[in-house]
Amino acid sequence: MARKGGSVTMADVGARAGVTARTVSNVLSGHTSVRPETRDRVLRAVDDLGYRLNTSARSLRTGRTGTITLAIPDLMIDYFIDLARRIMTEAERHDWTVVIQQTGARRENEIAILSGARRQHSDGLIFQPHALGPGDERHLTGNDRLVILGERIFRGPVDHVTMANTEAARLATQYLIDRGHRRIAAIGANPRVATTSAASLRLDAFRDTLAKNGLSMPAEYVVTAEEWHLRDGAAGMTRLLGLPQPPDAVFCFNDTMAFGALHALAARGVRVPDDVAVIGFDNVAMAEFTTPPLTTIEPGTAQVAKQAVDLLAARVAGRGAPPTEVLTDCSLVVRKSA
Amino acid sequence: MARKGGSVTMADVGARAGVTARTVSNVLSGHTSVRPETRDRVLRAVDDLGYRLNTSARSLRTGRTGTITLAIPDLMIDYFIDLARRIMTEAERHDWTVVIQQTGARRENEIAILSGARRQHSDGLIFQPHALGPGDERHLTGNDRLVILGERIFRGPVDHVTMANTEAARLATQYLIDRGHRRIAAIGANPRVATTSAASLRLDAFRDTLAKNGLSMPAEYVVTAEEWHLRDGAAGMTRLLGLPQPPDAVFCFNDTMAFGALHALAARGVRVPDDVAVIGFDNVAMAEFTTPPLTTIEPGTAQVAKQAVDLLAARVAGRGAPPTEVLTDCSLVVRKSA
DNA sequence: TTGCCTGCCGAAAAGCTTTTCGTCAAGCGT
DNA sequence: ACGCTTGACGAAAAGCTTTTCGGCAGGCAA
Would you tell me which residues 136-155 of chain B have a C-beta closer than 8 angstroms to some C-beta of chain A? Predict the structure, then answer.
């Protein structure tokens, strides 16, 4: 805890141990060798005085903060919670603390993040954009030490790590088709968002797979959802159920919306999967525990987290690797809802 | 982003604007008045040079980091996610960034947090202990700027903010009794934890309310759960269902476990609430969307968040108020599961 | 006109750690 | 015995901002 006035400094513990601050620093950091005897004296002095390292001073000197920033749309979406958790544990391996910034998926906030206004004290940034897309390169001003989560939206030399959105979406819709469904809807479209966004990619793959199987995609079967929250899923589903000809299967673009959809279905007494099949995307922990348990896409969240912080670590270490683009493995996990 | 070598400093922008670093500082912080004309020159220089404030240097000088730490057991429990989100938005009002530290509910980690080893760069700490309890006062060495979430476990001069655990648990069990249930079980006991912990308080209130209504609490009806995760709830429920005489109602000590219990029930084809009623605790967002929607306790999470950061802000501001203890309002929200 | 106050800003110190430079002694090889 | 390397540590600089101390000019009152 950064104290105000009378905080005890390295010079103080040095004085008590009969050495200078430099030796104290060496003892604490363990970089240089110091005689065991003086080492013990220093350690004892540290203990006696209750000394605590001033990280601000260290950061000022070393130019490293020991903190990275994770910028995501929103902690109301289970996937991002899962992602944040995993990134935190990965970061631990690099002795990093992570601070989470919510952008609310709003363009101005995303720009603010990139411009550095909201991540001052940070060694690097892991950033999942939502509103930003191709053409916004100008906003990443001097942002080395950045890894983008999602499709390659910037032409600049930036690392990207992303899940296989189109392959996964294809997997999901093909599965529904193979199970005999013909009136298949999707929840989660968002026309106001870049073509590289998850929403667009998944919708495109959905449409393509339908077409490839000779099925059409009626406009009223793709329902848009701004936020991908629980209530969006529920609202989307009730809208679909109000249609003269409701769908017999629904592909929700994330698990959170699928949970909402399941709720709407149950509230109306519609049986899942008999009357309407539901498939999600993310394979969040809760997916295993809904009624019925949710069939969904496992997008390789663990890999995303590991790759993202490893890539960032490489950038921070200054290894001049060319900008990398990694794609994680996805798979379908079949449970009971479809 | 803290750059390494050639970063541009206040002196640099000052040089370009024809002033000294001091004036630049004044312009940027807005504390002292500066002539509009020079103000503009400075701002333009900032823009031209792409200057970014070095927060480490500022922190070193001011002794404030602009960051607070929130230490909670675990981000796998919905309540703590909810709490973290709310605390983040409250902290924003004070221009604070919050870093989340997970203790895993493990004693050694909680001690490490208190000792400051894992929250170096922080103006204050909001801490929800789990393993620590009365008698551990010695671990809060020089911890002003601390607010504890939970019952008063330390005798020291520390602010506490807590929910009305016993009142809420009484509410929940009384409701089950009033609905005609007689074989009522509880999931979430934890004998290895302090008597001031949520687990103990809720269990005590549960037992008392049962007794007050002339009901007994068979040992096999209180199932212990170490982690309060989804799987603990499910495991606890299946154990209860395996009993020769299963309960007709279950009080889960948090919503996350209740979700697990709901799953176990559904997997066995047990009807809720007809065969077994389920009641939770926390009123998390998901509770509204389960099937059936979860009857649960609203513990005043919003109040907890607001009070905690306001109290912390007062401590940091050095206002010498006596240690405060605040209790939030709770209520029962009835849905369909009980 | 003199004295005082206010607004604006330069010079310099303070905040604490890490790192560079240098010193001193001891050890080793020849 | 001499030169060289290595180990241990002191002195001091560097890293960048905020704040204190003044100084200077202009305005206002006496």
Answer: 141-143, 145
DSSP character at residue A287? G
Q: What does DSSP say about strands B249-252 and B97-102: parallel, antiparallel, or unpaired? A: unpaired
Tell the burial category of B68 from Cβ atoms under 10 Å away from its Cβ (0-12, 13-18, 19+). buried
Measure Cα distances from A252 to A34, A57, A151, A275, B62 in Å.
Answer: 61, 49, 20, 16, 50
The beta-carbon neighbor of B55 closest among A97, A120, A290 is A120
Kindly state the DSSP code that residue A293 receives in the 8-state scheme. P
For B49-91, how does the pLDDT look when each residue is reduced to its tens digit (9 = 90+)?
989 999 999 999 999 999 999 999 999 999 999 999 999 999 9
Contact B305, B90 (CB under 8 A): yes
Measure the CA–CA gap between A81 and B235, rounded to whole angstroms: 24
Query: What digits encode the pLDDT tens for the residues A4-50?
Result: 345 889 999 999 998 999 999 999 988 777 888 888 999 999 999 98
What does DSSP assign to residue A288?
A: G
| Interface subset of B 181-220, CB within 8 angstroms of A | none
Residue B187 tokens, joined = 């999931």
Residue A3: pLDDT over 60: no
The answer on pLDDT for A2 being more than 50 is no
SS3 B322: coil
Residue A133 tokens read as 């897309």
